[in-house]
Amino acid sequence: MKKIKVLGSGSPILDVLLKVDDSFLSSFVSGEKGGMNMIDASEQERILNKAKEKGFSAKYAVGGSAFNTISSLARLGLSTSFIGKTGKDPDGAYFRKAYESIGGDPFSLKETDQAATANCICLVTPDSQRTMRSNLGASTLITPEDISESDFREVTHVHIEGYQLFLKGVVKKLVETAKKHHCTVSFDMASFEVVRLFRGELEALLPDVDIVFANEDEAKEFFPGMDFVPEKALSLLAEICPVAVVKVGEKGAWIREKGESFHVEANKVKAVDTTGAGDLWQAGFLYGYLTGRGLKYAGRLGAEVSANVVQVMGAELPEETWRKIRERFGC
């Protein structure tokens, strides 16, 4: 394990977590429930003010899709680093300090004084579904030129979130540099909106990816017109990438490698918030896979980590929970 180092790439985001009801969404939040839309700072302020008026209180946490995965890998005991850009502001300093506090290597975090650190309003309804409205601020200012050879020092695996496709040339540079340094690459499709907007880019990218993660909505969007069956979507993805994963929420996940498919059950728990569930599932899976524990171990650890995070608000688990997970799985 000392030889493993995972570099994540994504948007460093300060999450603003709000428990709301469906009527609040329909009345004050534009766009589809359950997805992620980009909005400007004034629209975020309007939503937060309305939430305050209605008595919904906010909780704050460091996050971002790929960062949730990378920080969880650090909690499980792997060496990690992260490429992303924050503002030169208190939120950016808080983000860096929080990552360092769990053993993360902050070397590849970039800074800018041209925009504030990104934040995301995560609106969680009683059915535990989260609707995200983001202002990506400084994170949108990262460019291919920000990515250097030194960011890949000692790195053996690179994990990329699909939202990075909004940044022209960044994913291409990451994958090219990863391959140059003999790193394996995993890619999270991120959301059905990302798949819808960047289908052409994904079709060109995925043949260079070693592990692809998709949930049910993303797989449906990537294979339009197909009557969705997890095993069928899985098989089609595995024709493109060596390892394919299709997550189906409370029904678990399907995993395929080298012509072999199997299903991992989800742990049955009472969910209060699904924020970060997929991201942390991926962390558990990547830990098991990259340490050579096998796909079944990887899937079970993914299910365990995911089951724990849906029982709390946000994507952060307390250290005591991580300790119990590490002991149970021999991490």
Short description:
The protein is α/β, with parallel strands linked by helices and 331 residues long. The chain is built from 12 helices and 14 strands.
Structural descriptors:
alpha/beta, 12 helices, five-stranded mixed sheet, 331 residues
Query: Overall mean pLDDT score?
Result: 94
Helix content: 25-40%
CATH architecture: 3-Layer(aba) Sandwich
> Would you report the number of β strands?
14
Beta-strand content bin: 15-25%
List the uncertain runs. none
Tell me which oligomeric state these chains represent: single chain
Number of helices: 12
Using the alpha-carbon principal axes, give the shape.
globular
- Radius of gyration based on Cα positions: 18 Å
- Biggest sheet: strands side by side, in what order? 6-5-1-9-10-11-12-13-14
Structural class: alpha/beta
> Which superfamily, in CATH terms, is the homologous superfamily?
Ribokinase
Here the CATH topology equals: UDP-N-acetylmuramoyl-L-alanine:D-glutamate ligase
Description:
The chain is of the alpha/beta class. The chain contains twelve helices and 14 strands. It has a single domain (5-12, 64-117, 137-329), classed as Ribokinase (UDP-N-acetylmuramoyl-L-alanine:D-glutamate ligase, 3-Layer(aba) Sandwich), CATH 3.40.1190.20. The strands form two sheets. The chain has a nine-stranded mixed beta sheet with strand order 6-5-1-9-10-11-12-13-14, with helices on both faces. Strands 3-8-7-2-4 form a five-stranded mixed beta sheet. Strand 12 (243-247) and strand 13 (253-257) form a beta hairpin. It is globular.
